Amino acid sequence: MKHLRWLGPLVASACFFVAPVTTAQASPPSFAAFAAAAQKAEAIQDPLARCLAYPDPVGSSWNAQTTAAYCRMRLGAPFTATQAEALLEKGESAALDKLLAGKFREAKKDPVARATFDTAFRTAFGTADTHMRALLDRWVKERPESAFAAAASGWQFLATAEDARGSAYASQTSAGQLQTMHDYLARALPELERAQKLEPTLTTTYVAMLSASAWESGFADENDILTRGLAVDPTSFTLRIASSSRSTPRWGGSLQLVAAQRAQAMKFVDKNPLMRLVGAAPGLDDLACGGGDALPPADAVRQAVSEGVSMSQLHCAAYGAISDVGLYAELTSQIYRFDPNDAHNILMRFPALQRLDQKDWYRASLQQSHERDPGNAQLAIAYSNYLKVTETKRAIAVMQRSLATGGDTPAALHQLADLYLLNRQPDKTLELANQMIEKHPDWPDGYALRANVEVSYNKPDRYRSIHAFLDRFGDRPAWSKTAAELNRYLAEHPEAPSDAAQPVTSRAGQATPDQPLPADRSRSEADASTDRGSAAR
After folding, report:
1. Are 118 and 73 in contact (CB under 8 A)?
2. What phi and psi, each to the nearest 5 degrees, are found at residue 77?
3. CA 488, CA 466: separation in Å to the nearest integer?
4. Which helix (H) or strand (E) holds 265?
5. DSSP H helical segments within 475-515, as ranges?
6. Which pLDDT belongs to residue 411?
7. More confident residue, 458 or 25
8. Mean pLDDT in the chain?
9. Per-residue pLDDT tens digits for 511-526
10. CA gap 377, 405 in Å, rounded
11. pLDDT for position 25
C-alpha cells in the first residue's frame, strides 16, 4: 500500500545526509576491530559509561582526559527537559528555580560541570516547541526575578527564530522567513539581557547571544559578548567553542584568528581539559564543509580529526568522508556515541553499515536505543521503520509502546497510522485519526488522515471529512499539497447532494466540523475493502 501523502509536512524536518548504498563489501581488519569494540560498548546501559568505553576512530590519538570530559559534558546532564517540563506543567516554577539554582551552584565549582550545565540548559529550553513556549511564558510571569526563567525564555525565542529561518542559504530563504527570524531574535535579546542583569555569572546567556549573532549581523557585538562572558568565566568551554566555530575562513574569519583563540584557550587546559577542542582542526570546516563540488581525500579527513574534534566538526568530517565507507561509519558512530538520543544519528550510519555487512549491528543499536528510551518518538519511528516490511506487527507494538510512554507527537501518531494501513487495518487508522482530533483539535494531522483514509477506502463519510479538513486547514501553506489533492478529488468525483447535505457529527450527534466521526460508522465495509492507495493516486 502506498503511504499516505499527508505525512509530507513532517518530512522536511527529518533531513540528514547518508552515504550512497551499493553492494556489501568486506570490512577491513581495522574497521572490524573498531566495530567489535563499538558494539560491545553500545550494549552498556549507562550512557556515560557507554561513551567512556567507546573506541576512538581508527588511528587517532584523542586525549583520554579530554574525551572523558566531553562524554561527561554531552551525557552527564544534571537536569533534563522532561524534569523541567514536568515541574512547569504542575505549576511548580519555584521548585524548578530551586533545582536549577542548586545545580548551577554545584557546576560553578568545576569548569567541565559548568559546560555540562550550559549544554543541558540549551537542550532543555532551546526548542521551538509551542507547548514549551506556553510553559515558559507562565514561568516568566510567575517568577519575574528568576534569571533562569529569563534565560530559558531567551533560548526558546532563539530556537524559534532559527526554526523560522530554516537552514537554507540566505539566497534561498524568503523575506518572510528572515523577517520572522528577526522578530523572534528581537524578543530573545531583552530576555537574555535581563537574565544577565539578574545573574551575571550565568554563562549560557552569553552563549545564546553568540549563537544569535551568527544568525543576524548587527544583532549584538560578538566581541563585546565574548569579552563580558569570559570576564565572568575565562575557563568557559561553551563560550570559547561558540566563538572559535564562527571564526574560520568559511564564516569570514581566518586561520590566524582561530589559532589565536586556541592559544588563549590552551592557557586553561589544566583546569578544563575541554579546551583542547577549541580551535582544533581549524581547516576541517573549509576542507569538508566548504561547499565545493569535490570531496576531500579520506586521508585528509582522517588526519584532521586525529587529535579530537567537537560534535559540529564530527558532522562536517562525516560529510567529507562519504566516499570512504569505513571512515564514514567510524565518524557517524562517534556522532552516535556523543548523542545517542537523536534517531538521525543512528540513521546516518545505516547505509555504511549495510555496505560493510553490519546490518545486525544497526538493528541492535535501534533496538537498544528504543528499549532504553521507549518514549522517544524519534527512536521508536526509526526502529519501527526498520521492522515494518518484515515484522509489521512488531513495528506496531513498538509505536504503541512509545505512545503509551510519552511519545505522543504528530510524527509518532503518523507512523502508527501508516503501520495500521500497511497491515490493512483502516478501521484502526480511523480510530487513531479520531483520537488525534479529540486530543489535538488544532492539529491538521488528524483531519487530513481521516479524509485520506476515507477517500482511499471509499467510505461514505469521505466528503464530509474532506470539507472538515479544507474548511479549517485548507489555506495553510504547509498543507497545500494535501489540500490540492483533496480538491482534485472533489473535482474528479463530484459529490451527490445527499453527500454534502449533512455536516460531520460528533458522537453526541451535534453538528460540528471539528469533531471526529464515530469510529464504527465505516467498520462494516472495511474488511471487504481492497487497497485503493491514497487519495493522491
Report:
1. no
2. -55, 130
3. 11
4. helix 255-266
5. 480-492, 497-501
6. 86
7. 458
8. 85
9. 333 333 333 333 232 2
10. 10
11. 52
Q: Judge whether residue 307 has pLDDT over 60.
A: yes
* Percent of the chain clearing pLDDT 90 (strictly above): 66
Pairwise pLDDT comparison (286 vs 107), residue with the higher score: 107
Q: What is the pLDDT of residues 467-484, one digit of tens each?
A: 999 999 999 888 999 999
Q: How many CB atoms lie within 10 A of CB 144?
A: 11
Per-residue pLDDT at 239 exceeds 90: yes
What is the spatial distance between Cα 157 and Cα 133, in angstroms, rounded to a whole number?
A: 8
With beta carbons less than 8 A apart as the criterion, state whether 60 and 307 touch: yes
Residue labelled with grid coordinates 554563562: 203
| Burial category of 534 from C-beta neighbours within 10 Å (exposed 0-12, middle 13-18, buried 19 and up) | middle
Please give the Cα distance from 438 to 440 (Å, whole number). 6
Is the pLDDT at 530 greater than 90, yes or no? no
DSSP state of 179: H
The arithmetic mean of pLDDT across residues 222-226, rounded, is 90
Whether 287 contacts 296, CB under 8 Å: yes
Which domains, from first to last, does the chain contain?
5-10+372-526 (1.25.40.10), 79-217 (1.25.40)
Q: Give SS3 for 401.
A: helix
At 484, list the grid cell: 490540492
Residue 279 to residue 266: CA distance in whole angstroms: 10
Alpha carbon distance 484, 143 (integer Å)? 47
Q: To which residue does cell 504547509 refer?
A: 478
Residues 319, 302: Cα–Cα separation, whole Å? 12
Q: Considering all CA atoms of the chain, what is the largest pairwise distance in Å, rounded to the nearest integer?
A: 80
Give the three-class secondary structure for 112: helix
Residues in contact with 380: Cβ distance below 8 Å, sequence separation at least 6, in sequence order:
370, 374, 398, 399, 401, 402, 407, 412, 415
Q: Which range, of 7-21, 60-74, 117-131, 223-237, averages the lowest pLDDT? A: 7-21
Q: What are phi and psi of 511, to 5 degrees?
A: -70, 125
**Is-contact 27 35, C-beta < 8 A?**
yes
Decide: 104 and 117 in contact? Cβ < 8 Å. Answer: yes
b/e map 3-37, b = 16+ CB within 10 Å: ebbbbbbbeeeeeeebbeeeeeeebeeebeebbee
Enumerate residues 6+ apart whose C-beta is below 8 A from 506. Answer: 512, 515, 516
Q: Do 37 and 333 meet the contact criterion of CB atoms below 8 Å apart?
A: no
Residues 6+ away with beta carbon under 8 Å from 12: none
DSSP 295: P
Using 50, 70 and 90 to split pLDDT, how confident is the model at 29? low
- Identify residue 179 by its one-letter amino acid code: Q
Any residues with CB less than 8 A from the CB of 142 and at least 6 apart, and which?
93, 94
Tens of pLDDT, residues 413-450: 989 999 999 999 999 999 999 988 988 898 899 999 99
Are the C-beta atoms of residues 193 and 220 closer than 8 Å to each other? no
Q: Which pLDDT belongs to residue 293?
A: 64
Residue with the three cell numbers 568565566: 233
Q: Where are the beta strands (DSSP E) in 423-504?
A: none
Let me know: does 327 contact 298? Beta carbons within 8 Å: yes
